[in-house]
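does this look right to u?? nicotinamide-adenine-dinucleotide version
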Amino acid sequence: MAAQIRVLGLGTMGGRSAARAASAGYDVRGFDPSPAAREAAEAAGVPVSDDAASVVADAGLILVSVPKPEHVRALAAEVLVKAPAGAVVIDLSTIDPGTARTAAAELAEHGVTYVDAPVLGRPATCGSWTLVCGGPAGVIDTVRPALTSTVAARVVRVGETGAGSVVKIANNLMFGAINAITAEAITLCERNGVDGRTFVETVAESGAATVSNLFKEIAPKMVSGDDDPAFALELLAKDNRLALELAESSGSPAPLARAIVDVNEIGLDHGLGTRDSGALARAYAEFGGGR
Ligand SMILES: NC(=O)c1ccc[n+]([C@@H]2O[C@H](COP(=O)([O-])OP(=O)(O)OC[C@H]3O[C@@H](n4cnc5c(N)ncnc54)[C@H](O)[C@@H]3O)[C@@H](O)[C@H]2O)c1
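got this back:
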């Protein structure tokens, strides 16, 4: 199956996914409401349409990569219900598990299977992503070859519908923590006479137990002021809010999630939402000593 791959959402993640599927030889077509995203996809060899419903009409496999749960809910109700019975929706977006379960139930009535399959990986590593999937094992097994020949190295089923979203939200809570603490540590150094670059270079090369791949990626960008968005701060803020909501609704303790959500909001108040998550360092640089 999945000779026909349709992609809804041609932004940073979906655009790369569509381009890789096209270059792997699949029959691909994409939709995005943004003309700029459609043009970029076309330039990358992806045929596009300005009509979402026509894109899914003959779909075997539909990849969805949209920013927020409300976008998934709208697509499920208005567009994905028009996919042919037997089609499989692989939702790469980071959303809450409740939205995943609602979309799955709605689409099941039309014979369409919905799998939440958020991405563990960065845009530049499309092709070696891990997709954490929630949904029926048999269907996930059926689409695995198409996914591993395009966007993913691993397609891991972690449970029923919604379970993939739980894993992703928990993972991005760790992302939010590392992002915020890196900005905070750099600022601490700079307020105490140590250049941020010196701190980052010294620690990154040290083999200290604190050095993660993420630290190595974002810390140099923070100190150089490069905030070209690989992962926009507003998306991280959304993910961390989802973590806090999930913690609150399940009675899971979340003192750090609360702090991370607050820090992200300060970055958004500084107008940094569309910049890279590492732009949080700029907001930190402007904090007074009292916070
Ligand atoms: N960028 C990352 O590093 C990264 C990593 C893992 C997961 N994610 C998640 O993947 C999702 C996409 O992230 P991104 O960075 O590509 O965001 P993006 O903003 O670059 O792209 C999202 C695209 O979705 C489009 N869109 C909005 N509504 C739509 C609709 N109804 N139909 C079709 N397209 C629609 C937007 O126009 C935009 O082009 C988000 O949920 C994000 O949290 C991002």
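Residues 163-190 form the longest helix (28 residues). idk if thats expected tbh
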